[in-house]
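agent> step 3/5: call structure_predict on target 'Cell division protein' (Paenibacillus pectinilyticus).
agent> reason: downstream docking stage needs a structural representation; sequence fetched in step 2, passing through unchanged.
tool.input:
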Amino acid sequence: MPIIESELYINAPIEVCFDLARSIDIHAKSTSQTKERAIGGVTSGLIELGQSVTWEAIHFGIKQQLTAQITEMDFPHRFVDEQIRGAFKRFRHTHEFIEVNGGTLMIDIFEYDAPFGIMGKLASALFLKSYMERFLMKRNIYIKKVAEEDYKKKQR
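tool.output (status=ok):
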């Protein structure tokens, strides 16, 4: 099972970062390159424990749908979303937030199993893991940008 881990320091309060990471609207904006949009479940605002969202997006030239549910939440330190239906055999995405020097260390842990047995494992090794690393980092950098811009505005 491949695991993608990343850490990113954000110069903004932990509560701001936590809410941006679970915002349906921010997610859609941060993934505009795949034309990602919420089409079912929670389709705007903040997603909460037990709620789900169905995303539609274009990955590898194919329109796909994926439904994820928030299965754990400890505001403002941690939440987990897991695939209910979609292209992966399974995934578990843990989002952790640690307050550091007035800012936030955002930790992302994405564990997944590719579909299609040995062919899926080969695809993961050849291109899927690196694709997901770039996809998740782009999203996290967008969250950082929005959090820091909003925080600066409030400081003025």
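agent> step 4/5: record observation. The chain has one domain: 3-155.
agent> proceeding.
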